[in-house]
Specification:
mainly alpha; two-stranded antiparallel sheet
Length: about 400
């Protein structure tokens, strides 16, 4: 719906609305229609826009409504707003002045069909250009549309954000399906590309109308971050992206959820780094478990003396080092203590060597393990110590 102020077609300057009598209006309409009749394409060019006979007749017909005549006259004198409605000229916002007529619902109803599409174009242009200054100005001024046209005023920007969300979702889908152009070697480029195409400082300046869109955009970034972490394994890019998502102005619940996810990724990343750092130590204990299992089988088959196994383990297990290792080794400590206990059991059951069996148990108790397991092994030691005392009495 195009805006055309019929008063702009008058050749004479209008100083008062009383000058708009029926004779003056008819003369101006007749002159314009004559120009159209004489034109090559049955139209008239007004400020680089073409209008045909039907457009002109419709525009002049509106002057028959006294309210509209008054509104057109106001706009005729408020050139900046008049020009904005006609061709989107932005001086209206730069030189904005509040007028009492803006509080009149009938006036807002009148300009809404023209104001909304022009405002939509202006808002999306400011967002695309990442113009913080323009967005600040637009956000500080009243939106001169009624509720019926608010969606239209924001439609372009809403579509812009939705397209960004769909773009992010498609990248996520491609990564999960292993059809993405991004991999371990070039995933950093995606991080840069996203931060270039999504300017959250500008998006944060949009009015509350876009709160749900901001939330959805932030979650699309969060989901992509998780997919990068799970499928490509680049924690640094994943963390960078989820922090970028938190830079968007989202509601409290969304913020809490995404911050929780960020904490989880950071914890897992720290564990991964620790695993990489201690990989040689982990391999050492993995080999020790394998050998210990073989030792237990040999003791059970009486193919080796427990004292030889004890000497071998004492040589290869540094309990002080083991207890100094981080929580990553908690399970290693538990399993090693259980292994030593099993060696103690086999030593007693198969070889009746209570002294060596007790030494295995004492080694296990020196390891930092949960109290419930330590108590159980303490009970085993007590039982073995009792057996040893009985043995000494017999001798």
């Amino acid at each position: 719906m195009r805006y055309l102020n019929p008063l702009d077609l008058f050749k004479i300057p209008l100083k008062s609305i009383s000058e708009l009598d029926s004779i003056t209006i008819k003369k101006s309409k007749k002159r314009i229609l004559a120009e159209i009749e004489l034109s090559d394409d049955n139209s008239i060019n007004i400020k680089n826009q073409k209008f045909n006979k039907s457009d002109i007749l419709k525009s002049f017909d509106e002057l028959e409504d006294d309210n509209k005549k008054e509104f057109y006259f106001f706009l005729y004198n408020y050139k900046e707003l008049n020009n904005f409605l006609f061709n989107g000229e932005t001086k209206f916002f730069i030189n904005f002045r509040h007028e009492s007529i803006f509080n009149l619902s009938k006036f807002i109803d009148f300009i809404s069909p023209y104001y909304a599409p022009k405002y939509s174009e202006l808002l999306i242009k400011a967002l695309e250009k990442k113009s913080v200054k323009a967005l600040n100005i637009l956000n500080s001024l009243p939106l001169l549309v009624n509720n019926d046209f608010k969606d239209q005023a924001f439609q372009g920007t809403y579509n812009y954000i939705q397209n960004k969300i769909k773009w992010l979702e498609q990248i996520s889908k491609n990564i999960k399906n292993e059809t993405s152009e991004y991999n371990e070697e070039n995933i950093c480029k995606l991080d840069e590309n996203i931060k270039d195409k999504i300017h959250h400082q500008s998006i944060n300046l949009l009015p509350f109308y876009f709160q749900e869109s901001r939330n959805n955009l932030s979650f699309a970034l969060r989901n992509l971050s998780i997919d990068i972490f799970n499928n490509i394994g680049d924690a640094e890019v994943s963390i960078s992206m989820i922090r970028f998502a938190l830079g968007i102005k989202i509601d409290g619940l969304s913020n809490d959820k995404i911050r929780h996810d960020l904490t989880k990724i950071e914890e897992i990343n720290l564990e991964r780094k620790e695993t990489e750092k201690y990989e040689p130590t982990l391999k050492k204990y993995a080999l020790l478990f394998v050998n210990s299992k073989k030792f237990i089988e040999k003791i059970d088959n009486k193919d080796i003396r427990p004292t030889i196994v004890l000497q071998e383990l004492q040589k290869n297990i540094d309990i002080f080092e083991l207890n100094s290792l981080p929580s990553l080794f908690d399970e290693v400590r538990i399993q090693l203590a259980l292994t030593l206990r099993n060696l103690s059991v086999s030593t007693w059951n198969m070889c009746n060597d209570v002294e060596t069996s007790i030494i295995f148990i004492e080694m296990a108790l020196k390891i930092e393990i949960p109290n419930d397991l330590k108590n159980k092994i303490e009970e085993d030691k007590y039982s073995l110590s009792s057996l040893l005392e009985e043995k000494k009495k017999v001798w």
